[in-house]
Amino acid sequence: NYNVVIEPDDHPRKSDEIPDFVALSFFSGAMGLDIGLEKEGIEPLLASEIDKETRKTIQANNPDIALIGDLAKYNAKQILEYARIPKGTSIDLIFGGPPCQAFSTAGKRKAFEDDRGNIFLNFIHLIGEMKPKYALIENVRGLLSAKYPIEEFGEPVKGGALFYVVNLLKRYGYSVSFELYNSANFGAPQVRERIILLCKLGKKKVPYLTPTHSNCTETHLKPWVTLGEALEGIEDKEQHHVDFPEKRLKYFRLLKQGQNWRNLPEDIQPEAMGKSFGLGGGKTGFYRRLSFDKPSPTLVTHPAMPATDLCHPIEDRPLSIEEYRRIQGFPDDWKFCGKITDIYKQIGNAVPIELGRAVGRTILADDRGEQLPIYPGFKYSRYKNTNETDFMSQIEIQKKNEQLELVF
Hints:
Strand order of the largest sheet: 1-4-5-9-8
Distance between the termini: 68 Å
Number of domains: 2
């Protein structure tokens, strides 16, 4: 639905009006996080993105915003010039999800030795230089286990990357709280776990996000939103999707809603799975047909990759672009630019809009000195020790043990 050719060069913001709450967006992608924050009243003055098709998407939906590319090529002064923010204006929020390839559990882990890992550090240094009142850093679960040395000459330690980042932020004067959040607990129709670091200048931490939904009845929160609810009425819209290859499609035809390869007749499982059959691991993403009665699993950058299949509950096809969009919470009129594979990727990489909204509510309430409801002991994800207190103390224990080993 967008055929105008856009070659978006880096450009300054169109307007020079300064809002009450000044925010800058980095690693903006298709702007899922930005839309969520905007719905709560935080509108960024600048976006940054290097992928060409994604830049077109930003430009198509937000022609007035400042747009820059590779963060390594800009200093703080240039960023303010692009955003048309006068010198001396205080910045309220810098936010973004630095590239997670350096940390992602799927890719090989090299943490900060990878150049892209350094983009992560560049971002932290930029925060330290621009000194916004708040900083928000979103990332994949793999950041909790990404390795990095915690001692000057030590071996890389699991979790060391995040430990290093938090200590760097502390040196810049920030109090940091973080947790691994499942988007389904905030009204997204998707089980998707992302780490959110909330940083605030000074001694006071920003509280954890306030959940609005839960799959646990004791909380008296609303139940998780299901895929069926999210896709209501979508059948009237034209669907654009890729297809499964015929040699795999025949196996999908044997599966009902909510089933995967384990539900295939045992005698054809080895044939269906090929080389993957003998490998360990849960493999629950193979031949995965979704269920209308549950939230969607995590959307990935392509819905027909063997290990992370996202098959429609009743039709014999992968999820469509339109369904992806609904699951992430993008408005129906948000434009996406690029080929169908580019668009899957842009939507699949985005932060669910509802998670962005929850973050926006938390930051603005904190800024106004208001207290949102707290649910002590609420399980934000499937994992333990994922908040900053438990995580940092675990690494400190590890560090002490290493030092003891060095002593003896």
